[in-house]
Amino acid sequence: VGVGDRCLSVMLIKIVRSKPHEEVGDRCYEEGMYEAAKLLYSNVSNFARLASTLVHLGEYQAAVDNSRKASSTRTWKEVCFACVDGQEFRFAQLCGLHIVIHADELEELMCYYQDRGYVEELISLLEAALGLERAHMGMFTELAILYSKFKPQKMLEHLELFWSHVNIPKVLRAAEQAHLWAELVFLYDKYEEYDNAVLTMMSHPTEAWKEGQFKDIITKVANVELCYRALQFYLDYKPLLINDLLLVLSPRLDHTRTVSFFSKAGQLSLVKPYLRSVQSHNNKSVNEALNHLLTEEEDYQGLRASIDAYDNFDNISLAQRLEKHQLMEFRRIAAYLYKGNNWWAQSVELCKKDHLYKDAMQHAAESRDAELAQKLLQWFLEEGKRECFAASLFTCYDLLRPDMVLELAWRHNLVDLAMPYFIQVMREYLSKVDKLDALESLRKQEEHVTEPAPFRCGRWHL
């Protein structure tokens, strides 16, 4: 110990004997006599004042130790700020961990760091504080805001881990101001503002759009109009994925409006998988759109299957279009449609033009129109279709009058060809006559049995 120190100690002992230690220590502290104050405060175990004194002496480690013993927020703040000013950030962080757990002290601490430009050190402090048992919402929220301003690449990871611990409205504003669109969408989703999330993704697709996330959120929106805006968005940016979106949205879409939308856009062929998936609803617009596509693709088998399975469409309009088609199979479907709508004459006439003789005979037979069957029979004769004439006699058997058939066969020298028909007619007529004869005989027998015997009374016969 030097001579000066010994003199100081002797002088302090004399002063202390006459006055309380703390009073003397405070006087020394105010006069800048920090070594003397240190001795006095140590003597009376005033750890709070001792810690303040030690930071002035540059003894930061000792100051932190005594702050821990003082266990006072005010002391922690004083030592922390002194460490920051002295750029002793390791010790400042140790003190700061005891300050940030108090929500009402957090703002002052952050301002002190930021006003001096020590943002990196502040972020490190808050990151270290997240694992504390007394960590509160303010810490998570302020760290997220700092990330948005200074380390945007870390914000999304932070939100994914701690979104339930942050003040979402406050962080939303920070993310929007920082133009962090992906983070903004994430927060809107967690805050159940699904409409805003979808609008943000559609407004900033490069940064914010993710296929799985978009399909998950779009099904939860309150405004159904956003579903149709999403369809336009996909047409513009992701046309090859639009059927996946439609399958997700189909329970909420008006299928008639959806078909109209794609029809106006000229993209019906793009959404054919969607049309097939919802055709089970038997919607008129869907059926007509799909039938139109199948016609354009010249898929007559698919068109026939669609027509048979789903009947809610304008049959006559489709038939009129198909009867002018260049492929015979589609004209055949037109005849089929005419038949299904009881336009028998048009159906038979179309079959005659395309030489679909079997179909013409079947349609005439199903019509139950004797005049139509007779005209078809005459047409076969005029065209020299002898075999078709013979086939018609049996296909339309119930609709033809034997006398008319006999006349036509005789006039065209086809009696031999028509003879099987006449044999069948003769057999049928004979069966009817035999049946009538049997019925008549039975009737006569019943009358004979039931005839009453004459009544005798004496000599008189009544």
From TrEMBL:
What does UniProt give as GO cellular component? clathrin complex; clathrin-coated endocytic vesicle; endomembrane system; extracellular exosome
Give one GO molecular function term.
Answer: clathrin light chain binding
What Gene Ontology biological process does one annotation of this record name? receptor-mediated endocytosis
What are the start and end residues of each CHCR repeat?
A: 1-92, 97-243, 246-389
Which PANTHER family is this protein grouped with?
CLATHRIN HEAVY CHAIN 2, CLATHRIN HEAVY CHAIN RELATED
| Protein's UniProt name | Clathrin heavy chain like 1
Q: Which organism is it from?
A: Nomascus leucogenys (Northern white-cheeked gibbon)
- The protein's gene is named CLTCL1
